[in-house]
Amino acid sequence: MTLLLIGCVLIIIIGLFLIGYVSIYNKYQEYIIRINEAEVEIDTILRKRFDLLNKSISIIKGTTDTEEDVLGLIVKLRSRKLTNFELDRQLYDAINEFNEYKDKYPVLNDSDNFIKIELGLNESEAEIIACRKYYNDIITDYNRLIKTFPNNIVAHFSKFKERTYFDGRDRSDDVLNDFKL
C-alpha cells in the first residue's frame, strides 16, 4: 500500500513539474512571437525609409543638376545584406546626408516630390522610435524571464538566450556593453 502511495505521489510531482515546464515554455514562445512581430514591423519601416531615400536620389540629381555621387551610401546598401540593427545605423547616416543636400540646395524645397519624401522620412522616424521602444520593452521582459528562477531552468534546457536591445547605437562604441558585473 505504501509503495502505491509513493508511486502516486511521484506521478503527481512529475505531472506538476511537467505542467510547470510547459507553462513556462509557452510563456517563452509568446515572447518570441511578439519579438518576431516587432522585428517584422521594424523591417517594414526600414524598407520604407530605404525606398524613400532611394527615390530621392533621382530628385536631387534632377533638381540640382549635380554631378556628385548623391547618397552614395544608399547605392552601396542596395547590394548588401544587413541586419536591421546595421541597416538602421546606415539609414540614419544616409538621412543626415539627405538633410545636408536639403541645406546645400535650397531649390530642393520647391520640389513637391522632395517635400513628400522629407515628410515620409519624418513620419518614419516617429514610427521607428515607437517600434524600438516596443521591441526593447519586449526584450526587457524576455531577458528578465531568462534570468529569474525557475524560468532560467527552462531557458537553459530549451537553449533560449538573452537578446540585445534595439537602441540605434553602434555597439562597437558602447563601453557599457563590455562592462561585466
Q: What order do the helices and strands come in, and which of them pair?
A:
Layout (H helix, E strand, L loop, with lengths): L1 H63 L7 H6 L6 H21 L7 H36 L3 H8 L23
Subunit arrangement of the protein: single chain
Order of helices and strands: HHHHH
Biggest sheet overview: none
What proportion of the residues form beta strands (DSSP E)? under 5%
**Number of DSSP helical runs:** 5
Q: How many whole angstroms does the radius of gyration measure?
A: 25 Å
What would you call the shape? rod-shaped
What is the helix fraction of residues, given as a range?
A: over 70%
- Count the strands? 0
Structural class: mainly alpha
Provide an overview of this structure.
The chain has helices at 2-64, 72-77, 84-104, 112-147, 151-158. With 181 residues, it is an all-alpha fold. It has a domain at 47-169. The protein is rod-shaped and about 95 Å long. The model is unreliable at 170-181 (pLDDT under 50).
